[in-house]
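Good morning,

Both structures are done.
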Amino acid sequence: MSQGDSYDVIVVGVGGMGSATAYHLAERGVDVLGIERYDIPHTHGSSHGESRLLRLPQTKGHEYVPLVRRAKDLWLDLEEEAGNEIFVETGTIGIGPAGSDKITDAVDSCDRYDIEYELLSSEEVTDRFPAYDIPDDYQGLYQDDGGFVASEKAITAHVRQAQSHGGTVHARERVRDWEPDGDGVRVTTDRGTYTADHLVVSSGAWAGKHLDLLSGKLQPERRVQIWIQPEREADFAPESFPGFTFQAPSGSYYGFPNYERPGYKYGREPETPDVIDPDDWQDEPTLQDDEFLRRLANDHFPTGQGPTMAMSSCIVTRSVDNHFYVDTHPEYPQVAIAAGFSGSGYKFCSVIGESLADIVTTGDTENPIEKFRFGNRL
């Protein structure tokens, strides 16, 4: 057991958000310790499964657009520093009923922030992107600057670069408790006890178990992704099949082209949330999951109905209002918190990590995160 090890900052949870935070702190010369209960990267939380969509048009609120732009810049910076592909630019397309809220909200965000886009008819979508067969009364908003982040590669890159700048990361170490210690904190794990001037809690679905403040304010949900081998691979290659969102008649989907492993990938947001305990849930995908997900391919991808290549389940952790929590603890200003990313957070990891590093080192950030402060939301 380690006793009395002291750091400037301890980061609890070294997934997407925590790895980015550890990197940005270490890069500034901060003596940081990241503690992760599983592997780096691992398959028990919200960041695995190869890829996460990055779209510049935002439908959850205009406040997200400046953040996603900054996030993309930071992903590209990380890619250059790490010497490894992190962001894959495929363009993105959002498909839905003509005039629906998702389409009009995306158009509004593009117009407000001068994002170039093309609004395509159903026929234009299928002409340009031959994988699709969509209803006649649907539209697609295509934007060519988006794509996806290679999520596990990005975690690995953030951790490696944090280490190269002097940061310390412990995997396979479970945080049992934390408590204020004067103006700092004391963190107890199953391997030892550590003290620090500041604590960052970025533990995803477990944040509510680490923070009484968030107990009952976070809803972890099970989400399943599938990879399907297409009959005509060229239709699903990155140059002809951009990352997508699709408000289909059978539900709300998001997906990606072929990338590294066999098959194109997509997932679905279930109409009824599958609420779970992150310490006790059905993480192995089932035959029912396969049948449920393949509806999209069966209905709308006529050349993409080959065999299932892989499936993976992950956790989405919702906040009470589906917007992020990024703030300091109202009682303990030495504690910063990032939680409740509600299924759309990964693309923002780079900028949330930067924002948390700003908060810890200077007390605030220039990044526009006011929407995500606690205020009276809890």
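Second structure follows.
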Amino acid sequence: MGWRIVHVSKIDQMSLQLDNLRLQRNDQDIKIPLRDIFALVIEDLTCKLTSRLMIELSKNNVLVLLCNQHYLPECIVQPVSGHASHYRQMMKQLEWSKELKQIAWQQVVMRKIENQSLVMRKNMIENIQCEKIESLINKVEVGDLSNQEGQAARLYFNSFFDNEFTRQDSDYIENAALNYGYAILNSAIARTIVAKGLISGLGIHHKGERNLNNLASDLIEPFRQIVDYFVIKNPPNEYLTKEYRVDLINLLHAKVRIENKMQTVIRVIELTIDSLLRFFETGNPDKLQFPDVSKIVLYEP
């Protein structure tokens, strides 16, 4: 699996040269092996792309994100198939039972709330608030029918922002930063889901008819707190500068715990999806593994 994340903001043309991504601008001519690339984030609206390059990026399972004029990912390019046993994996996924899906969602929500409480404690939120959100973890039912996730979210964000704050309020530039970070994470998860031969549109909880990545929308929940931690520790002073966007993209290189080991977020995504497959094979919730943000090591270029 590739590891590099290539961020393109001022490039005249991208093309394929042998097995390399070639980037050209004026006298600059840079080549990067395709096998080293995990994701390509393109923000230059005037950059020229060759179709041959796009085909080879797809063959190499490179995540390609095309961003709009507000720098937010607008289009994701994914391979049509990315797994040697795509049909068999797809058929298994179609047979996942409703009961097991609800158990999986319960575990996702429990880890999400636990990670939220860890971020709160890392930011010295008063103990009574931390205890309130922690008390919700054991109240999460199979399928989270009582929506403990929503109750936790209100407690969580109100601990860091004023009571008027909502995730939909564009007046808070923190929301732009959170949205950007979440979009990068969601795309990376969707890319890995497809690479594993799964149907990204078929979720365990989310059922959006227009959402091509329902399963990614499920699995991102315990990952969001990595973005939250960064944005809360490093609040933006203005709207998504290039340097800030690069820092958010580089959260994919940050390290968190999973299976009692520190791994990059890129690797944690893969391990999480692998654990989900083991869970549906065995029906054992202990097989599920999610990121643990009790320790976060940010990437330093």
